[in-house]
Amino acid sequence: MALSSGDNVPSCTLSVMGDSGPTPLTTDDLFNGKRVLLFALPGAFTPGCSMAHLPGYVATADKIKAAGVDTIACLSVNDAFVMGAWGEAQNASEIVMVADGNCQFTDAMGLTLDGTGFGMGKRSQRYAMIVDNGVISHINVEDGPGVDASSAETMMALL
């Protein structure tokens, strides 16, 4: 069952691309004492994610932060190398590109997508959430294809 508003985010270790390679990032480090807007998507460099989802957050990052968000994070079930390269390719310098390489966070959120029929294995469903000091205050999960409920514009309206 998927986590919902009022639930604590799962505790686990993710990773980001650092100056000298993949660097561990705990969910405590990411969420505790902060207001975070995290959006998750099925895969880096995929068409919908690269053309519709991430660009909206890149374009509105300053407005989102001005509305009281400390960190904007993009999460996918990819490795830190891929997430780092994708962030660079998309000029996403204001967004923390988070790798959930083992699908640990996504599984714990209850938001795993079975992409085996497409040769993609386990992935994350497309969603976005606002987390206040480790507690989910809003979460919007897409019901089907497309980017609507989890778009930057939709989430900004909740800030």
Automatic annotation (TrEMBL):
- Signal peptide interval: none
Q: Which PROSITE patterns match?
A: THIOREDOXIN_2
Question: SUPFAM superfamilies from the entry?
Answer: Thioredoxin-like
One Pfam family in the UniProt entry? Redoxin
Reported EC number(s) for this entry are: 1.11.1.27
Keyword Oxidoreductase carried by entry: yes
Keywords assigned by UniProt, alphabetized:
Antioxidant, Oxidoreductase, Peroxidase, Redox-active center
This protein is called: Glutathione-dependent peroxiredoxin
What is the native source organism of this protein?
A: Candidatus Paraluminiphilus aquimaris
Top-down, what is the taxonomic lineage of the species of origin?
Bacteria, Pseudomonadati, Pseudomonadota, Gammaproteobacteria, Cellvibrionales
